[in-house]
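Workshop exercise sheet. Pairs work together: one partner reads the sequence aloud, the other fills in the structure field after running the prediction. Swap roles for the next sheet.
Pair: D.N. / O.F.
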Amino acid sequence: MNMSRGRAVGSAFSAKEKTVLDLLCSGDHPYREQACEQLRVASWGGYQLDECDCFLISVPKLPKAARIRHGGGPFSTLDVSRAGEGLGQLDLWVVDGYLHSVDYMTYDDHEMLPDLEDDTLEPLY
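Structure field:
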């Protein structure tokens, strides 16, 4: 099993990652049910970059009905702020009908996942 910063690819999501994923899949997108279904069988797929907490999502092959009909790219976005100040956006990406990754685009150089106790995460779409 591959390792990424001492963590095994294919392992369960951390509590913070799971909370972020649940929020990203909680919107009113027409394919939210497929995203939630994929999330139930998904595992942590490793980090995208060494200096960032952005992570990949590994989803096993599923029946066509369970795939997300999305052209690819961001599926949903959360706006991240603290005390009214914008910090960045979290994007849930879909590639070829499957959840692919969570990307955190910050407005500064801080690329760790948001602090769920101090930060506000609001769905944009």
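Discussion prompt: The mean pLDDT is 89. What would you look at next?
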